[in-house]
Amino acid sequence: AQTVTQSQPEMSVQEAETVTLSCTYDTSENNYYLFWYKQPPSRQMILVIRQEAYKQQNATENRFSVNFQKAAKSFSLKISDSQLGDTAMYFCAFMKGSGGGADGLTFGKGTHLIIQP
Amino acid sequence: NAGVTQTPKFRILKIGQSMTLQCTQDMNHNYMYWYRQDPGMGLKLIYYSVGAGITDKGEVPNGYNVSRSTTEDFPLRLELAAPSQTSVYFCASSYPPGLASGNEQFFGPGTRLTVL
User: Fold this and answer.
1) Which residues have CB under 8 Å from A102's CB, separation 6+?
2) Contact call for B42 and A103, based on CB within 8 A
């Protein structure tokens, strides 16, 4: 079974600062996918960024980027130029590549990110 | 294109009652999922389906049942509700992994269920 660990229950930064959220995972799989989801107070789950384990290049999406260290089983999320709208819960998630992904996502417990004005 | 819709948004049940949470998607996704999110926790998989007529258990299936008679609908049935089932329930759907969508799961807005 896979496990996902997010060691920072809550983080707070000033607007426009850069913040990094940590995530580690444990798996015996070689083929898998990693995701960061954002959950604002509206409760909607929103995909922020994804990474295929077979790709060495770190994924980027505008102000969001990841540092994927496969050997260390680490998958951190960096948010640059943070904005008030980034305030939310952030979940790291894992999906097996084998088995067709049918067994869904395994989530960490989340990090509550607060952007201060 | 409404995406994934869930009804109801909120519900209060008494212990021992039953109910069905509805989930519908209009993206023609084969894969559908039910998760629950307890306070301060990430989501946990209850059941999933890879297509009409095919369902299987996830990590926390006890106390729940599902069916998948069409591609669009994936209802979750709670039998004999218990306080431990108080949670927020999310339905999600996706294409099979490996397609251009990159395995993204699309989530519904959730149903907040309280069992008293």
Assistant:
1) B31, B48, B50, B56
2) no
A3-24 pLDDT, tens digit each: 999 999 999 999 999 999 999 9
Q: Where are the beta strands (DSSP E) in B14-53?
A: 19-25, 31-37, 43-51
Cβ–Cβ below 8 Å for A95 and B103: yes
More confident residue, B53 or A56: B53
Taking the CA of residue B36 and the nearest CA in chain A, the distance in Å comes to: 11
A5 neighbors A34 (Cβ within 8 angstroms)? no
Facing residue for A105 by CB, picked from B50, B105, B109:
B105
Contacts of B42 (CB under 8 A, 6+ apart): A4, A91, A93, A107, A108, A109, A110
Q: pLDDT digits over A33-50, tens only?
A: 999 999 999 999 999 999
